[in-house]
Design a protein that fits this description.
It is a single chain. The chain is mostly helical and 327 residues long. The protein has 18 helices and no strands. The longest helix has 19 residues. The radius of gyration is 26 Å and the shape is flat.
């Protein structure tokens, strides 16, 4: 006997996925709302037939939502459409990074829906969709902002950081500026030394041994960043920080004389002689420590309005003054 189901608020694909013999990744999936499903394949879940009795015990509805029995209430055509929708969702999901899938799985249902919607919007409207505050769209430096985000910052942002920036873009302008400045600070483009740490083979012996002792999953994740500076070195440092003690050998320049000439020149021209000596003494407190030393150098140059490409935030310096004052 066909039993009633709330097709318009469908929340239980789990058993249906098993019936459809889909992959294990999706077998562990989450409830997918009707609106989300419809967006993927323009598929309308059918309403219950008019001749279905309404006398069914309402207490059964919850178990009904999480059973495959709703599938029996569909025509052959609609059943194929529903399974096709699930497969489309599986394909879309499998194309996403493992970090995205993991984060999505941990979210409450409402937040899952919101993340899916935001991700689909970026796919439709472009990768910067929802990341820039509306007030900036009319600024003369909007193109500079887009370039900064798409080339220098976005490739380094995690899904959580992207969500932070999206929320800030919906709030007030100052909050967005502060958020963007904070993310830029967290992902400073650190200066390279004479030899760059870009692969496992480039690591000093103590770091090489440390990484080889890590679990296979971590090593695979680090391999995906090989060849990118400073992404690989920073990821190696963070992985080791989660499993102290951290090896002592630095992964990049961590003394004034080790900085590239262009960075030394920027410090010399941006600071008066007496101020430069004060800044150097301040830097001595983190000398020999990477990435603390180069991050402090870059922060000092940013505060002085350095125009070096990897350092400069988009737009006039005064625009960011309030953001830096709140750091």
């Amino acid at each position: 006997m066909i039993r009633p189901g709330r097709y318009d608020t469908w929340t239980g694909p789990l058993v249906v996925i098993a019936v459809a013999n889909l992959t294990a990744v999706v077998l562990c999936a989450w409830p997918v709302g009707h609106e989300t499903l419809r967006k993927f394949v323009n598929f309308e879940m059918p309403r219950p037939a008019d001749d279905i009795s309404d006398a069914t015990d309402p207490s059964d509805l919850e178990s009904w939502d999480h059973s495959e029995m709703w599938l029996d209430g569909l025509s052959n055509h609609d059943r194929k459409e529903a399974l096709s929708a699930l497969r489309s969702f599986r394909t879309w999901l499998n194309d996403k990074p493992a970090a995205f899938q993991s984060r999505l799985m941990k979210l409450p249902i409402k937040e899952r829906q919101e993340l899916i919607d935001r991700t689909r919007q970026r796919e439709r409207d472009g990768p910067l969709s929802g990341l820039i505050h509306s007030s900036v769209s009319s600024e003369p430096w909007i193109d500079d902002c887009r370039e900064f985000l798409s080339i220098k910052l976005m490739p380094r942002l995690s899904e959580l950081e992207m969500a932070d920036l999206e929320r800030a873009a919906l709030a007030d302008r100052k909050g967005w500026l502060i958020c963007l400045a904070r993310l830029a600070h967290d992902h400073l483009y650190l200066p390279q030394g004479k030899s760059s740490v870009l692969t496992l083979a480039d690591l000093p012996a103590d770091w090489n041994s440390c990484i080889r002792a890590m679990d296979v999953e971590t090593q695979k994740r680090l391999q995906t960043l090989e060849g990118r500076w400073p992404d690989y070195a920073i990821a190696v440092y963070q992985a080791a920080s989660a499993r102290p003690p951290i090896p002592s050998s630095p992964l990049g320049p961590c003394r004034f004389e080790e900085l590239p000439v262009v960075w030394q020149g920027a410090m010399t021209t941006r600071f008066p002689v007496f101020q430069l000596e004060l800044e150097k003494r301040r830097l001595n407190g983190v000398a020999g420590r990477w990435p603390e030393y180069p991050r402090m150098v870059l922060e000092q140059l940013r505060r002085r309005g350095s125009l070096l490409g990897p350092i400069r935030l988009p737009g006039p310096i005064l625009v960011w003054k309030s953001a830096f004052e709140t750091q």
